[in-house]
Amino acid sequence: MGKKVVLSGNESIARGALESGITLATGYPGTPSTEILEYIAAKAGRDVHAEWAVNEKVALETAVGASYSGVRALCCMKHVGVNVAADPLVTLAYTGVRGGLVLVAADDPGMHSSQNEQDSRFYAKFAKIPLLEPSDAGEARDMVRDAFILSEKTGLPVMLRTLTRVSHTSEPVEFSPVKKQKKPKLDVNRREWVMVPAYARVRHKILNQKQGKLIKYSEESGYNNVVKGGGELGVIASGVCFSYAMEFHQGDYSVLKIGSYPLGEKLLKNFLEGKKEILVLEEGEPFVEDQVRCLHPNVKGKRTGDIPLEGELTPEIVSLALGRKQVINQGSGIKLPQRPPVMCPGCPHRGSFYALKQNQPLIVTGDIGCYTLGVQKPLEALDTCLCMGASIGKAAGMSHSGAESVAAVIGESTFLHSGITSLMSAAYNQANILVLILDNSSVAMTGQQPTPATGVNIRGERTKKISIEEVCRSCGVDSVDVINPYRVGEMKELIGKRLGQDGVRVIVARAPCVMLGGVFGGDRYVVGDCNACRKCLELGCPAISFDEKEHRAAISHLCIGCGVCAQICPFDAIKKTK
Ligand code: SF4
Ligand code: SF4
Predict the structure, then answer these.
(1) Domains in the chain, start-ordered, CATH in brackets?
(2) Which of 17, 223, 308, 489 is a Cys-bridge partner for 259, taking CB atoms 3.0 to 4.6 Å apart?
(3) Rounded Cα gap, residues 388 and 400, in angstroms
(4) Residue 62's closest CA among 80, 74, 70?
């Protein structure tokens, strides 16, 4: 018996990869997947290369390189990251892999921290590769180990789809020994690896020929199994929904647990036989449901409105769909205040947004990161947000459509992820835009992971530091300024000056994320002789409130002493204190 340790789903995935003898682990931070790679970097020895890639496409390509070299590689990303990695992924199914390659796609139904709730199972189907989907943390570890074996057996990358409630819930996991790493061996085969049409046509055929075997694996897989029960209802459940279905199981229905795809008809038909009614429980799209619908006349699920099409499924939703009266979570009855996400007190982005807004650009295209919170009141400083790196392209498109005074706002990590090419394109095509790069020396949204601009790697060691300014100049931008966003007056003046100029102008607003600690040395600010003008409230700092009874502004203990409010108070009423 190995030792048992309580692990989250993400840690369990990481443990499964380590036990499988991986040589390389890569990915890009993104909720709910981030902790997988962090666990590996913290626990693995130096024989495992762990890295944050600049984006998911690079991460997958790096994993492919390791796999072609004959060793095992893990690649982790959130669901929208798979969009970025889709280009290599789809053709990788043609070339195939050598060392096992497992791609973890962490879906975020309910969009706790994402811009959409796309279902990664479609990518596996689209690329014609196997997919495993755990229902809890313990199974996640087992599945990762089997995914590596399956990957090598089929010569295909295997996708592991997790869901927020699997990634972030914990349970005891029994450790198994760590397998020996495979020895690297580069056996070059151009007909397999060079996807020119003549070779790709052959590889496509080979991929199609593998599909029958993939279905057979799923049919025989222990991850698709039946929990027998009486009655005429059959429940088909995948992911965390299987756990919910079992929570209410009183023997009056059978459950087909789905954990391995592609699904074969034989498996489904065997289960459907004799059942009067089928309920399909799955998070994401009606992926399984649509397949079942072709085989049974009475299927309840997302298509019938018995299960919501959007958002996470909860035990309550499942309970009601099963016709149970019992709703397990009645709550405490205490009405809690709403706590929408806000930028932290002292966040350097606040000064940038305030200064930008004072200059009243026609439109501000935004991007993905903490700073997307700048859309909220009272700042309301962003007008668009689409996907990673889109701010610059959109701004350029608006400029070419005749708009003047267009600004794009992008964090430095997002810029390095997928903003560089759009900046180059904007400069090359002579757009008239101001690009504000908010450089807070981290991927702050996902937990302050380092970026190439920090000169620190995933293990906290010094490495090559990438200069944002030099990258911008190399992209053809002649006007590049660097400024401290806490100097609000200077920031406002610079933005005003650059906004009125032609061409692509970049301002790098550089100050570390306050969550990195030690930024302001313990000073705080207090309100003295307040004139009640409410100007300081325009910053939206959570430390500042207005006391209606006293008719004056107040600063709470949340203040971390950034001093921005003191700079904008027209009556000099806010003072520094110890
Ligand atoms: S900006 Fe100054 S004077 Fe106005 S409410 Fe705030 S503290 Fe009072
Ligand atoms: S100094 Fe002002 S703006 Fe900065 S954290 Fe304190 S209250 Fe907020």
Answers:
(1) 4-220 (3.40.50.970), 225-321 (3.40.50.920), 348-516 (3.40.50.970), 524-577 (3.30.70.20)
(2) 223
(3) 21
(4) 74
- The whole-angstrom separation of Cα 60 and Cα 127 is 14
Q: Which ligand is nearest to the CA of 530?
A: 1
Q: Is the CB of 553 under 6 A from ligand 2?
A: no
CA atoms of 357 and 228, how far apart (whole Å):
62
- 50 close to ligand 2 (CB < 6 Angstrom): no
Pocket test for ligand 2, best of 565, 572, 577 (most atoms within 8 A of CB): 565
Core vs surface per residue 347-380: b (16+ CB within 10 A) or e:
bbbbbbbbbbbbbebebbbbbbbbbbbbbeeebe
Burial classification of residue 200, based on how many CB atoms lie within 10 Å of its CB (0-12 exposed, 13-18 middle, 19 or more buried): middle
Query: Looking at this predicted complex, what is its ipTM?
Result: 0.97
For residue 30, the CA-to-ligand 2 centroid distance in Å is: 29
The full DSSP string for 314-356 is -HHHHHHHTT----S-------PPP----PPTT-HHHHHHHHH
Pocket of ligand 1 (CB under 6 A): 527, 530-536, 553, 569, 571, 573-574
Please tell me if the CB atom of residue 527 comes closer than 6 angstroms to any atom of ligand 2: no
Strands 574-577 and 524-527: antiparallel
pLDDT by residue, tens only, the chain of 578 residues? 789 999 999 999 999 999 999 999 999 999 998 999 999 999 999 999 999 999 999 999 999 999 999 999 999 999 999 999 999 999 999 999 999 999 999 999 989 888 899 999 999 999 999 999 999 999 999 999 999 999 999 999 999 999 999 999 999 999 999 999 999 999 999 999 999 999 999 999 999 999 999 999 999 999 999 999 988 999 999 999 999 999 999 899 999 999 999 999 999 999 999 999 999 999 999 999 999 999 999 999 999 999 999 999 998 999 999 988 766 666 678 888 887 788 999 999 999 999 999 999 999 999 999 899 999 999 999 999 999 999 999 999 999 999 999 999 999 999 999 999 999 999 999 999 999 999 988 877 788 888 898 999 999 999 999 999 999 999 999 999 999 999 999 999 999 999 999 999 999 999 999 888 777 878 899 999 999 999 999 999 999 999 999 999 999 999 999 999 999 999 999 999 97
Q: Which atom of ligand 1 is nearest to the CA of 532?
A: 5
Residue among 415, 434, 400 nearest 506 (CA):
434
Residues paired with 102 in a beta bridge: 74, 158
